[in-house]
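FAQ

Q: What does a record look like?
A: Structure on top, sequence underneath. For example:
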């Protein structure tokens, strides 16, 4: 869904991340959701939750909106706003009368309304192109707000892979011998694509019958099929390793077209089931994002000390 973008952006990001108060070195993400840090007596605080967006309204409600509500519930002292990064999704929804801001517009609004402390929490999975573009936007707004921090995406360090795997484990269908789960991740040309093979390695370490492939990156489906055959798997359940079960999940994964993963795996002799469930449908995943927003907030407090 994301076009080839100027890779120079990535080089600029280390600096911008620091300017934006990126919480990458902040404390444990787990302690973040425990206590809300009030924006301060004089300041007005807001949390801007940023996602790619989806035009599939049912999954939007069950994943993105549900996660936004979870974050709002965790930090009631803050104003809560939404922004999407996909211009296409924003335009499609606008035609249906649903207005969603892009990041620059949302930040402009917060500035105009006098907010002084802003925490931007992305609902992205990996620190890829969109996350780095978000850091650039945040960098531009740095002078506008007294305090500005950007939270981490879901997969942002070794421990975060284990956190996600542990959160996913109880939600997976029971697998008898010869059965497995195949996750469809998005994938990217960005270096952050390394998250997907890392996720595979972590599932392997935990001894789970889970395989990870991507639509637009590495590993690709043929490599997944090779491993499934090597391991004697005959039946698979397909699940999106994406925040929402949108276009990729409905078409590329579970669609009836010849080249969908369901069709290809069926032709390869596997029994295939599909579950159209975005990661955002899992309350424990929403908790992880709420904790990341808390960690970003905590980084603002640390900056004052
Ligand atoms: Co895409």
């Amino acid at each position: 869904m994301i076009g080839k973008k100027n890779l120079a952006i990535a080089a600029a990001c280390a600096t911008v991340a620091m300017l934006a108060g990126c919480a990458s070195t902040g404390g444990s993400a787990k302690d973040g959701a425990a206590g809300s840090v009030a924006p301060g007596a004089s300041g007005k605080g807001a949390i801007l939750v940023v996602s790619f967006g989806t035009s599939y309204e049912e999954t939007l409600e069950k994943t993105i909106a549900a996660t936004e509500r979870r974050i709002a519930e965790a930090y009631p002292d803050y104003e809560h706003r939404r922004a999407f990064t996909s211009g296409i999704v924003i335009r499609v929804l606008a035609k249906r009368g649903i207005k969603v801001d892009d990041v620059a517009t949302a930040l402009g609004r917060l500035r105009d309304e006098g907010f002084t402390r802003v925490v931007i929490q992305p609902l992205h999975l990996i620190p890829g192109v969109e996350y780095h573009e978000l850091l650039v936007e945040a960098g531009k707004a740095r002078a506008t707000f007294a305090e500005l921090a950007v939270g981490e995406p879901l997969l942002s360090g070794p421990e975060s892979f284990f956190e996600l795997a542990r959160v996913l484990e109880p939600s997976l269908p029971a697998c008898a011998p010869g059965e497995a789960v195949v996750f469809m991740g998005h994938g990217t040309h960005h270096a952050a694509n390394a998250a997907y093979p890392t996720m595979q390695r972590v599932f392997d370490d935990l001894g789970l019958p889970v395989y990870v492939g991507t639509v637009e990156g590495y590993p690709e489906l043929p490599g997944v099929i090779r491993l499934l055959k090597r391991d004697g798997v005959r039946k698979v359940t397909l699940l999106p390793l994406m925040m929402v079960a949108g276009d990729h999940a409905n078409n590329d994964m579970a669609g009836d077209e010849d080249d969908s993963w369901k069709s290809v795996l069926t032709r390869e002799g596997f029994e295939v089931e599909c579950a159209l469930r975005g990661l955002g449908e899992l309350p424990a995943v929403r908790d992880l994002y709420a904790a990341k927003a808390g960690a970003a907030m905590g980084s603002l407090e640390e900056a004052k000390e």
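Q: Is there anything notable about this one?
A: Confidence is low (pLDDT under 50) at residues 1-35.
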